[in-house]
Each structure stands twice: as C-alpha cells, then as structure tokens.
Amino acid sequence: MERAQTSRILESITVPTLLLNERRARRNIARMAEKCRRSGTQLRPHFKTHQSAAVGEWFRAEGVTAITASSVRMAAYFAEHGWNDITVAFPVNWREIDAINALAARITLGLLVESLETADFLRERLTHPVDVWIEIDSGTPRTGILWSETEQIAALVDRLRDHALIRLRGLLSHHGSSYGCRGEVQLKAAWTHSIERLLGVRAALAERGISGLNVSPGDTPSCNVVEDFSGLDEIRPGNFVYNDLMQVINGSASEKEVAVAVACPVVSKHAERLQIVVYGGGVHLSKDSFVDQQGRTTYGAVAFPTDDGWSESIPGAWVKSLSQEHGVIQCDAETFDRVNLGDLLIVIPVHSCMTADLLKHAVTLTGDTIDMLVLTAGD
Amino acid sequence: MERAQTSRILESITVPTLLLNERRARRNIARMAEKCRRSGTQLRPHFKTHQSAAVGEWFRAEGVTAITASSVRMAAYFAEHGWNDITVAFPVNWREIDAINALAARITLGLLVESLETADFLRERLTHPVDVWIEIDSGTPRTGILWSETEQIAALVDRLRDHALIRLRGLLSHHGSSYGCRGEVQLKAAWTHSIERLLGVRAALAERGISGLNVSPGDTPSCNVVEDFSGLDEIRPGNFVYNDLMQVINGSASEKEVAVAVACPVVSKHAERLQIVVYGGGVHLSKDSFVDQQGRTTYGAVAFPTDDGWSESIPGAWVKSLSQEHGVIQCDAETFDRVNLGDLLIVIPVHSCMTADLLKHAVTLTGDTIDMLVLTAGD
User: Fold this and answer.
1) Predicted confidence (pLDDT) per residue in A181-204, tens digit
2) Which of A10, A11, A12, A15 to mutate to test the interface with B (most CBs of B within 10 A)?
3) Residue B378 pLDDT greater than 60, yes or no
4) In Å, how far are A5, A221, A274, B61 from A271, measured between CA atoms?
5) Best residue in A179, A220, A298, A324 to probe B by mutation, most B CBs within 10 Å?
6) What's the rounded Cα separation, in Å, for the pair B347 and B359?
7) How far is A94 from chain B (nearest CA, A)?
8) pLDDT at residue number B118
C-alpha cells in the first residue's frame, strides 16, 4: 500500500525534488531525544537543517520545547509557529537590533555574545529581556572566545551580569572540527577533548567565584556517536534529523539513517565517457563537496529509486561535477546500461542543510509536501 | 543626491543583501548589444544569471527580443513577463513534456536535442510546434554530440527534419572551457578554436546536402573579449550582465564592470588571527570558489561600502571560508583595524549567477527592489 504510494510519487516527479523519508527522520529524532532523556540533558536541536514548521512538529512529538536557529529571521519564523524558547546560535548582528527586540518581546530569545563591544551594545539597545550565552571556541576557530582565555571570558561575564534585561545563561560552543574526523573512535576522542575544554572554562570561572553557568555544546557527528551526555545542560545538534553523505563519511551515521535525497531526472547519457547527466545542479544540490578516498572531488552519492524510496548508494557511481542546473554522474558500465533517458536517479547530498535550504520544500515518501522558510524581499 | 541615496540604502541594510549597480549592468548590456548589432548577430542573452523580469526590461530597452533560459520553469516565468521567443538551453527533460507542450502553445519555444531517443520522444509526444537546436560539444564535454561525430549529427538531423511540429533551427554549443582561460589572448584563441569546430560541423553537414542551419554559441568570457561576431547567427552569453570575480580572474571583465556584490554585516572580529566574520555564508554567496595565485581557496573578494556603492576590492582581504551563515574574511592588519562590529563589508561574489539565485532579490544603488523568479512547491 505505502510502497505503491511511494512509486506513484516518484513517477509523478518532473523536476529536482527533495525526498524526505519521514520514518527515518522521526527515528533519528527519537533516538537523540531518548539519549538526552537518559542523560538528563535538554535537547535544543538546531532547526537550520530542516527550516520547516512541519518537521518541527516531529520534534515536539518527542518532547522538544527549546530550539536553536541560525538567524533572527529563522527564529521569527519558528516563533510564528509556536516555538517560544529559541537560541540564535550566531553572533549578535547589531544591524538587526530592532528585529531582536521585537522577537525578545514575544519569546525567550537566546543570543550569542563573544565581545565586550557587543555586550555594551546590548546593554544600551535592548528593550526586552534576553538570554545570553557566551560563545566559547573549544578548538574550532570561527567565532567565540578561545577556551584558554579565562581573563577575557571572566571580563565578559562581568559585563553581562548586572543588567536587568540580560540573563546570562552560560557557555556555548560549536565543535565543528568533528567534521574532519573519520570513524567513531576519532569522533569520541575529539568530543571528549572539546567537552573537557568547555567544562574547564566553567571550572576556571568557578574558581573566580563565577557560578551558575550552563554549558551548551553539540554538533551532529559527535552527538550521533556519543551515548551519554550527563553533565551537559543541553546539546544543540541539527543535521542528525536528516544526516547526509558527510555523516556517512565521518562514520557517525549509516546510509539507512540518511533521511533526505534529491530525485533528479536523467536528461543525457554519454557512453564514450560513461557519464549520465541529470537535471540537478548547483542550485539544487549546493556545491558542497568532499574528496573521497580515491582523491576524487565528489558532489553526491547516487542511488536508484525503489518502491520504498531509494536504494543503497551505487558503489560505481558518483556526482563528478555540477553546473547551475546540470549534475554530471560518472559511473561504471553496468550502471550506465541500467539507466535510461527520462528515468530518475537519486542523489544523496553531501550536506543536507544546504540542499534543503536550496530546494525550499520536500516531499515525503507518503506524499506530503513539507514547506520550509522562504525569505522574500520584505523580510 | 544619488550618493546620499546610496548611503541611506547601505545604512538601512540589516541582513546579507545583493546590491545591484544598475548603471554598470545597463552598460554591460548596451555594450554587448552594440557589438551584436555591428556584427549582424542576434543577441539571445541567457537570463539564468539575473532571473528577473525587471532586469529583463533593461535588455528589451536595448532591442533584445529573444532570450535563453536554463529550465522550463524559468522559461515559463519569462513567458509570463512578455517574452515570446525563448530557448531552454538544457537537454529536453522528458518528464516535463506537459509543461513543454503548454509553453510551446504560447510562445516560440526552443529546445535542445542531442540524442535520437529524445528526437523520437518529441516526435511522439509534442502537441505544439517547437524550435529545435542540436547541441554540439565543441570541446567542453558535458552535454552535446562531439563536433567530430558528423555521422551521428547527420543522423539526428534526419530524424528531426520531417516532423510537422519540429522546426530544426541549427547547431548550439556552450564553450564552458573558457572559464579555465586566463587573459584575453587565451580567451580569444580558445574561442576561435571552438567556433571553427562549430562552423566545421555546419560545413561537414553542408557537404552532405544539409543546409539552412544556424549556429548559436556564446559564453560570457569569450563574448566579453571578442568584438566581432560576424558569421554567427546568434550568441547566448548570460553572466556578462553582472560579471563576477571569475570574469575578473579570467581577464574578460574589470572590477568596474562587476554589477553585483553582497552587503554583509560584520558580526565578529578576531585580532589574534586577523579574521573578520560577516553575516553572509554559503546560503547567501554559494560555495563556488577558485584557487588564487597564492594557492588559496577563495570564496569572494572584499570591498568597503562607499557612497556610490562599493570600493575596488581590498588587496589584503579575501573570503577564506564559508559555513551556512558565516563568512570568514582573512585580512591584513590595516583592513582589520578599519572595520568595526556593526559595519557592512561588501563581498564580490565568485559566481554571480549562483549568488543571485540564492538571494532571490536585489536592491539597486538607487533603492529599487528587484524581484526574481522564486520556485515554490506548486511549480
């Protein structure tokens, strides 16, 4: 019954379309929520991956009440859809202070601060209460104060502590280096190291009499493989709801745990170079890539459509290059011969957050259309 | 007057915003149109770069009546905005045959064919007349029949010639290898080589008694530097309306001819590594990159906002990495010290087509909002 439905959905696809395996996504959510419950840790999932009110409800069904967004606009979208505790895990953008105040008037809004300048700016310009997290760089230099700079962190705590509209919540970090790990052993070791640094900051501050700070780490590769989050107040993974090729490569998820893929019509075949060209390019898949074990730059894995969604990835095929609308798939002779013009091929994306952001909506294997945040000129 | 206006527009920007220098874009269009008029060649510009009905009118003002799109949906959008001669420069996607027929009922629709299978498919499924171009690979293997395969091309001509709904227009090629050229000399030599191949196909077919075929080449790097298109029936460059860092790198445009850039709020500064982080990441700029002369992977050049838009790019600064919303700018100490939290920096994109596609609308330096095609679940 459901298989016939999935076949009909695939049959009806005419353009590059994000397929969403709801069962896998819900299982990914349930598993992470369960690990958090057991650990006594709040799950504050990052919603930038799906950017969808409908998928948000799947989290709510697992008891999630607090979320993370990557922009003020994304936070406003989820606030409109009933979320009232949202951390914007991005340094405060001074230019959005009006939108920040408007949102802070409606919900519990968490902000990220990493400098005295921004602390002073907020002290002066806030009109409504906000939660503030100090961003700590626990070994992935992008934003945040380096974990070892205790003086600097303590000075920022001081600057944030005595303002009526600022509630200092704690220390937040994003351990993005986990994406460079390969395999569970490496992932767990890197996580332990990063958490030790974050907890070390808290301990160093405690020695100076600064207490009551929560800690909020959490990236998908680590949180997928770690079972016990005890001692952490919350975690903020996002990508795990869908996973993607990166998570398969770094060993934090199996292909059976990847919940999205892009259905692409086959528009061209070139036997002399064993290439299949699909309608599905950089504007659909994103130009995220990785270098595989053979040293090949790869923009996605390739699977066949099946009556329950899509197959395991085809060992002898990969997305070799992307232009705006074209995806060039390199493959072996057997795969080449199985595929005809007008068929669909399924591309498992390298980075599902970027792909979902580009495609703006998804179709589940049972035929529901999942809408996402779309920013327009007025936003 | 206008400068005060531009300053006010920049002042009001709160989130990553595509700035469009209308004067530069109109000058880019006018120059290409003038070269085509002098050459007796039709300009059929590719509208995938701007995807905007409003910008389309700037082309109409220069006498353009025929255009190129990269998808059936994009063609339908421009048909709604009064364009009635549109080539979809992408291999026919069988799965969109209903949309193709619907569009062919309304406008002169050009399609690309490169296989007997697709010719047969069209013969069977077309319900309205279409123009058909045979795609020739003139040295950039992606799609198209290799220029030297005269037999194969002749067979396809035969298959396309005697059908009431198919008007065979000619031979079309996209010489994408030009993007690998550096400097005008290389660009012109590569163009000459590619055009010789395309005209060679026409000559070889003529020897077999196949005549009346037009030729349609045209990529921006070549068309920016070539002055004379005599002997070519039409050209189809697209990117030239905006240009971008790629065109500057390959030597086909100067920075003063780049008409778009992204205004990005500064959200973080890290003196110890001379990095500035802006709100402006992969979802705004795209992950297109190039490797510069120092071997550095670069995601954009950086400029200061000025009262007439933006400065020349800053020699000592470049976009070093992108995550979903973050752009990390590496710079020299002087640049670092000039920039404050809350300022804007301007990123000149590597690939303006992808950046415009992501941002979905632009703001001109005189304050007009330029809307673009936005695909939604219903399309």
Assistant:
1) 999 999 999 999 999 999 999 999
2) A15
3) no
4) 33, 38, 5, 44
5) A324
6) 13
7) 5
8) 98
Using a CB-CB distance cutoff of 8 angstroms, which residues of chain B are in contact with residue A115? Answer: 268-269, 341
Residue where the block lists tokens 């950089």: A282
- What residues in A contact B15, CB-CB < 8 Å? 71, 73, 93, 95-96, 379
B298-306 mean pLDDT: 97
Residue of A nearest to B115 (CA): A268
Question: In this structure, what token pair is assigned to residue B216?
Answer: 């349609």
Write the burial class of residue A154 (CB in 10 Å: 0-12 exposed, 13-18 middle, 19+ buried).
middle
DSSP B57-123: HHHHTTT---EEESSHHHHHHHHHTT--EEEEEEE--GGGHHHHHHHHTTSEEEEEE-SHHHHHHHH
Provide the H-helix boundaries in chain A.
Answer: 2-12, 22-39, 53-60, 72-80, 97-104, 116-125, 150-161, 184-207, 220-225, 245-249, 282-285, 333-338, 352-359
What confidence tier does B173 reach under pLDDT thresholds 50, 70, 90?
very high
SS3 call for B321: strand
Q: Cβ contact (<8 Å) for A70 and B360?
A: no
- CB within 8 Å: A14 and B93: yes
- Which of A9, A268, A371 has the highest number of chain B CBs within 10 A, making it the mutation to test binding with B? A268
Given the structure tokens 């800053």, which residue do they identify? B314
Q: Are strands B305-306 and B309-310 parallel, antiparallel or unpaired?
A: antiparallel
Predicted pLDDT of residue A378: 54
A318-332 mean pLDDT:
97
Neighbouring CB atoms inside 10 A of A84's CB total: 13
How many helices, marked H, and strands, marked E, lie in chain B? Answer: 13, 22
Query: What is the predicted pLDDT for the residue at A292?
Result: 85
Domains of chain B: 2-18+259-371 (2.40.37.20), 23-243 (3.20.20.10)
Angle (nearest 5°) at CA A11 between A5 and A14 = 130
CB B350 within 8 A of CB A335: no
Nearest Cβ partner of B143 from A268, A360, A379? A268
CA distance A368 to A98: 36
CA-closest candidate to residue B287, choices B239, B250, B326, B316: B326
Contact across the interface for A325 and B92, Cβ inside 8 Å: no
User: Nearest CA of chain B to the CA of A356: how many Å?
Assistant: 10
